[in-house]
Amino acid sequence: MTSSRRHHLKSVMLQIAASWLAEETKQIEAAKAAYMAEHCPEPDFGGDQAALMEFCKKLHQSLDKIDEERYDAEAKVVKSDLEIEELKMKVKELGGVKKPALKKVRMSADAMLQALLGGKHKVTMDLRSNLKQVKKEKKEEETADAGDWRKNIEDKADRKKMFETS
């Protein structure tokens, strides 16, 4: 499609849309006029002053009634808006807080403490240096017994004789 053809089609579409908007505004104005003619008849100002005063009183009463209805409607809207906000908050509370995925950070305990406490504090987390060192005691009896094996044999032989005689 050439650019001139595209431009022509676009201008035709805009003309049609403009005509539709004009028709719609005329229909809205006609509907307003019909509504006003039906609900608000032309006032008759040809009467005396007492009739005009009565007409003004009725007009003020109808205005007061309309203001009360408007106020009640606004109060209902405000109340419902507050209730909607409370319900939204409850939904958020029930949904819980989504925790972000934590990234694995390779950091030593000393570096972590230094980052948390600041550079001026010197804290070391070398836990192995704080541990007590326990030295295992070797059993010296076994080594002594292992060296003198003949004596052990004689002791066992004496025991054997003791059980046989009894």
Automatic annotation (TrEMBL):
Keyword field: Actin-binding, Muscle protein
Pfam families registered for this protein in UniProt: Troponin
Keyword Membrane on entry: no
Q: Which GO terms describe its molecular function?
A: actin binding
Question: What cellular component terms from Gene Ontology apply here?
Answer: troponin complex
Nucleotide-binding is among the record's keywords: no
Gene3D superfamilies recorded for this chain? 1.20.5.350, 6.10.250.180
Biological process terms from the Gene Ontology for this record are: cardiac muscle contraction; skeletal muscle contraction
> What role does this protein play?
Troponin I is the inhibitory subunit of troponin, the thin filament regulatory complex which confers calcium-sensitivity to striated muscle actomyosin ATPase activity.
Which family does this protein fall into?
Answer: Belongs to the troponin I family.
Q: What is this protein called?
A: Troponin I
